[in-house]
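Structure in, sequence out. Go:
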């Protein structure tokens, strides 16, 4: 039983990570890096300002990662 659990746990983690990466909308994530940049978002949401984007970019790296996208989508700030 322990051997099965040892093999299943990493698979579950990989599946969860793949699901997050795939959650991004290809119509927004033009370069396919799994993150949204300000220009990518502004192309589909012209009303998006740099200030709006900065508020969503909690890590301050200039990109919205899967977690930031999920939070913004759940809050209704980004399209689902």
């Amino acid at each position: 039983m322990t051997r099965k659990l040892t093999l299943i746990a990493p698979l579950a983690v990989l599946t969860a990570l793949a699901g997050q990466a795939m959650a991004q909308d290809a119509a927004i994530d033009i370069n396919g890096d799994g993150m949204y940049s300000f220009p990518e978002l502004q192309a589909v949401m012209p009303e998006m300002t740099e200030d709006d984007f900065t508020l969503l970019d909690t890590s301050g790296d200039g990109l919205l990662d899967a977690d930031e996208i999920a939070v913004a989508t759940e809050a209704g700030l980004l399209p689902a």
